[in-house]
Amino acid sequence: MLDANLLKTIEVTDADLDAEFEAAFGQAINDELLEEAVGVQSGVGLDFNSILKAKIVALSGNEAVLDVGLKSEGIVPLDEWDNPADVQIGAEVEVLVEDIDETGMIIVSKRRADRILNWRRIVETTNEGDTTKGRVLRKIKGGLLVDIGVPVFLPASQVDIRRPADVGEYIGREIEAKILKIDKERRNIVISRRKLIEEERAKQKAKLLEEIAVGQVRKGVVKNIADFGGFVDLGGIDGLLHITDMSWDRIEHPSQMLKVDEEIEIKVLNIDRDREKIALGLKQLQENPWEKVAERYPIGSRVKGEVVNIMNYGAFVKLEPGIEGLVHISEMSWTRRINHPSEMVNVADEIEVVVLDVDKDKQEISLGMKQTEVNPWTTVAQKYPPGTVVEGIVRNLTNYGAFIEIEEGIDGLLHVSDMSWTKKVSHPSEVVKKAETYRCVVLSVDQDKMRIGLGLKQMTEDPWLRAVPERYQPGMVVRGKVTKITNFGVFVELEPELEGLLHVSELADHKVENPQDEVQLGQEVDVKILRVDTVERKIGLSKKRAEWASDSEQEIEAEARREKRRERRGGLGEELAQGLDSLLSSPSDEEPTTRSAEEPTTPSAEEPTTPSVEEPTSPPDEKPTTRSAEEPTTPSAEEPTTPSAEEPTSPSAEKPTTPPDEKPTSPPDEKPTSPSAEEPTSPPAEEPTTPSAEKPTSPPDEEPTSPPAEKPTSPSAEEKQDD
Fold first, then answer.
1. N or C: which end of the chain has fewer CB within 10 A?
2. For residues 413-442, b (16+ Cβ closer than 10 Å) or e, as one string?
3. Would you kindly state where each structural domain of the chain is located, as residue ranges?
4. What does the pLDDT look like over 553-566, one tens digit per residue?
5. 3-class DSSP assignment, residue 76
């Protein structure tokens, strides 16, 4: 037997050995000669890549020396045996002849021989779709390398029904799989563990669906855990164990109750055979604590609990495992205005509460914190009866009013309608300011709803009772400012915080389509008060009637001045007095009017074209209404400026056409046209606005100053009756 270790200790170079061989054999040694010599001596032909049977004859370090039936032994590394216990002297193995080294040792491989033999065996004995077993060797790109006699590929997607997070956890495990593909040319085999599991589960699923029923208690293995629950394998079908069905107590995550691959006992809650879904429950294996909750927690009882969760609307308090109640934010304090429950409690706080309500079916308990204290509202009605004057600070403003704190924790509502008697308040900020102090009157106290009504305007007397009716009476003409214009009229401010309505029909004599054509915002106008409604708190105004009243007053003043001058002249002749009146009167003394737009401008045949002495014309900037020499005094402000149907439309002979400062040219014996002392004054401003034909300007029992043939001025019987 050749001792390789011994050869290594001999200090002989390769050149020395070659020289010795040449001296012994007569020629240099080479591979061909060596192979020929080995084969001749053994009597067996040496065939590389052939498989030979060999026997272990010795162990040298990390190698095994094999007798392959040739003159020279073969050497195989010990790591080619998967099981070191199989390496025994005398054991037979099959090896593949690979090469001959320079020392004449035959290089053989047990591993390559095993693969070739196993490949032949697998190809001869198995087909695609057959089941095989193997051990996972290592992790490679895209999956695992599995040894089933030869290395085969197991894709990561085919490892299990649900792809594992790390396929490396299967390394070293014995698995069973199904052969998907055999590639003989490339000597490649692909296997699938998932397909084998699915086929087995399909059989188990069909059997399980026949046996399973609602209410059964079965065992299962936890396969996966999610935020909403866990999936449990019942043997062919995975059922869902929802987080709410794990425990009667509060849990944050299913991992607090479950672990992957853990075997648990669960109860079947629901089965959907069409969709093959099963709902499972774990807490249903225990007694429901809500069954006797009404007996353990009667309404009105005081209990202690731990705050386990805080929401915007309240805090959840744990009374016992599986029993929680809600303290609503409105039940935390009698007086404090709480924006968030965290202002009162924190998680893990132990607090005392009162049971307010129990709903066994909905599994809800209403709790209260403020009920553990005395309700201060029980004494509010006694401390602040209606009519009490209180002082408080404005804490908050809303669209409908202001909340005023009259004592700590006790707020009253000052509504916008109780802020001013006369001003229309759109927002409380127009009257009160936040954080300022005001004195108010208590209007009402609702102890059950815990509300107090306050009033600011009630601190003073209602001006609509006496002040407004006394200051503003129907018929008065006042001045105001336009504050608001609408399609139905105009609001006029008569004094601060007091407005009246000027309806669109009272803006002008003509029909007004748009009030802005007549008045503008901020404009000051004279209006006449039509009515004062103290019940509805409204004042009706009229602009056109105020203008009528102004014209009537001017006529009355002019007539009064003429009357005084006649009285001062005493016994002068009537005609002379009238002539002097015409000479002395100025446009400011009298208010003669020009003809209306409907009167013709050409004189009639009986009318002289020369101006008369008795009546000068009015200035062009005034709005005359044309009166003949024989007509009585100017009509009131309510009379229209257009002539009536009974009046002639052409100017009379006595109407002047020259300016008022021109001297008269008529003969002195002509009857003067100025009104006599017996002529009546204009009617009051309150007369109706009917046409002038129905309004006589002189008493019916007096004779007109002009000849009857020209134009009578006395009203007819019908006109008297209408008047």
1. N
2. bbbbebbebbeebeebeebbeeeeebebbb
3. 4-114, 126-196, 212-285, 289-372, 376-459, 467-542, 543-598+610-683
4. 777 777 777 777 76
5. strand
| Coil, helix or strand at residue 230 | strand
How far, in Å, CA of 446 to CA of 275, rounded? 59
Residue 129 Rama label (left phi>0; alpha psi -120 to 50; beta): left
Q: Which pLDDT tens digit goes with each residue over 596-621? A: 334 433 333 334 333 333 333 333 34
Q: Residue 609: what pLDDT?
A: 38
Report angle CA 182, 183, 187 to the nearest 5 degrees. Answer: 105
Nearest to 491 by CA among 534, 467, 527, 465: 527
Give the whole-angstrom CA distance, residue 321 versus residue 319: 7
Fold that domain 4-114 belongs to in CATH: OB fold (Dihydrolipoamide Acetyltransferase, E2P) (2.40.50)
CATH superfamily of 126-196: Nucleic acid-binding proteins (2.40.50.140)
Phi, psi of 350 (to 5 degrees): -100, 120
Higher pLDDT, 182 or 355: 355
Instruction: Report the SS3 class of residue 542.
Output: strand
Supply the CATH classification number for the domain 376-459: 2.40.50.140
| Nearest-angstrom CA–CA distance, 721 and 482 | 40
Q: Look at the block and give the residue holding tokens 């606005």.
A: 689
289-372 belongs to which homologous superfamily? Answer: Nucleic acid-binding proteins (2.40.50.140)
Contacts of 327 (CB under 8 A, 6+ apart): 314, 315, 316, 317, 341, 345, 351, 353, 367, 368, 369
Closest CA to 315 of 303, 300, 331, 291: 331
Pick from 636, 655, 593, 600: which is nearest to 618 by CA?
593
Distance CA 719, CA 723 (A): 6
Q: How far apart are the first and last CA of the chain?
A: 164
Burial (0-12, 13-18, 19+ Cβ within 10 Å), 599: middle
The CATH-assigned architecture of domain 212-285 is Beta Barrel (2.40)
Name the average pLDDT for the chain: 74
- The class that CATH gives domain 467-542 is mainly beta
Average pLDDT over residues 537-549: 87
Per-residue H/E/C for 118-133: HHHHHHHHCCCCCEEE
CB-based contacts of 711, cutoff 8 Å, min separation 6: 628, 630, 631, 647, 648, 652, 704
Beta strands in 111-173, from DSSP E residues, in sequence order: 131-140, 143-147, 151-155
User: How confident is the model over 272-285, as pLDDT tens digits?
Assistant: 988 889 999 999 88
Distance CA 625, CA 605 (A): 22
Answer whether 126-196 and 376-459 agree in fold.
yes
Judged by average pLDDT, the poorest of 98-107, 384-393, 610-619 is 610-619
Helix (H) or strand (E) holding 560: helix 544-569
